[in-house]
Every structure is written in C-alpha cells, then in structure tokens.
Amino acid sequence: MTKQTLQVQGMSCNHCVNSIEGALQEIGAKGKVDLANNTVEISYDENMISFEAVKDAIEEQGYEVV
Amino acid sequence: MTKQTLQVQGMSCNHCVNSIEGALQEIGAKGKVDLANNTVEISYDENMISFEAVKDAIEEQGYEVV
C-alpha cells in the first residue's frame, strides 16, 4: 500500500471533496481531502493502480495536481 | 415575473453554481449565479412562488442569502 499527500489546486468546497474522493474510490484508491491545506492524502495498492491513474482521476474532475 | 439580484455567501465553484441553479429550477424559478460577484440573479412568477421559497431553496443547498 502506497500513501502519499498531494498538493491539489482548485478545491474549494464540499462538492469538490465529494467529486475527488468519489473519483478516487471509483478507481480503487482512497483519498482524503483537506480543504484548508489544499491537499489530498491518497492511499492505493501500487500493484493494482499507477500513480498516473490516481493523478488522472483527480485532474479529470477539473483540479490540478501540483 | 419578478427579477431580483441576491447577495449569496459561500458559492465557490461550478458545483455550487449547479446546485443552486438546479434547486431553483426544481421549484420553478430561474437562477443565474455570478461567482465573481457572489450574486444570484433570480426570476420567478410571484403568483406561483414566494420569495421565501426562493430563499429557502438556496439556503437548503448550504448557502446564505445575505
């Protein structure tokens, strides 16, 4: 299991939290958004999912991984 | 037809726009959110819908009409 904290731009409200955490859940990863710090704590099985897939899932929702 | 521009707090992103405009549509009103100015331009038939109902629809989504 890989754990990482990403800096993500553009997250502003609880709708954003839900869209990001939901998108990560859909690909089998877990995400915890911290709005105050503009971060997403992600955990995923690196044998199943690539970091690129995690990043893409967030960026497809309209946010930028810094 | 009544037209009014409301000051609304807490609107931050396109999800917010959709939730407010959608909620107004559901009660038969029209809303146009201006994120930059924190306003919602509403239009509704005052014979069908009260101002209170319009205000409630917005506040039920978690925003405050000032």
From TrEMBL, chains A, B:
<dbReference type="InterPro" id="IPR000428">
    <property type="entry name" value="Cu-bd"/>
</dbReference>
<feature type="domain" description="HMA">
    <location>
        <begin position="2"/>
        <end position="66"/>
    </location>
</feature>
<dbReference type="InterPro" id="IPR036163">
    <property type="entry name" value="HMA_dom_sf"/>
</dbReference>
<protein>
    <recommendedName>
        <fullName>Copper chaperone CopZ</fullName>
    </recommendedName>
</protein>
<dbReference type="InterPro" id="IPR006122">
    <property type="entry name" value="HMA_Cu_ion-bd"/>
</dbReference>
<dbReference type="Pfam" id="PF00403">
    <property type="entry name" value="HMA"/>
</dbReference>
<dbReference type="InterPro" id="IPR006121">
    <property type="entry name" value="HMA_dom"/>
</dbReference>
<keyword id="KW-0479">Metal-binding</keyword>
